[in-house]
Design goal:
mainly alpha; about 60 residues; about 0% strand; 4 helices
């Protein structure tokens, strides 16, 4: 996440919070990295993609 936040030139917290919401549907919850581990790579990426698609459809 740190490399991604640096590449996007955003603060780490500004990247972590939207990802947490994408994965759990909540602003507060278990640790993000633990959540990713439990969900697994495929489900994690699918949920992030779902959030991005929703955002694109509603922010045109």
């Amino acid at each position: 996440f740190r490399k991604t936040s640096e590449a996007l030139e955003v603060k780490l917290k500004d990247l972590v919070h939207p990802v947490r919401i994408a994965l759990t549907g909540r602003r507060i919850g278990p640790g993000l990295f633990e959540t990713i581990e439990v969900l697994g790579k495929e489900k994690t990426l699918r949920r992030i993609e779902n959030l991005l698609n929703y955002w694109r459809q509603n922010n045109d």
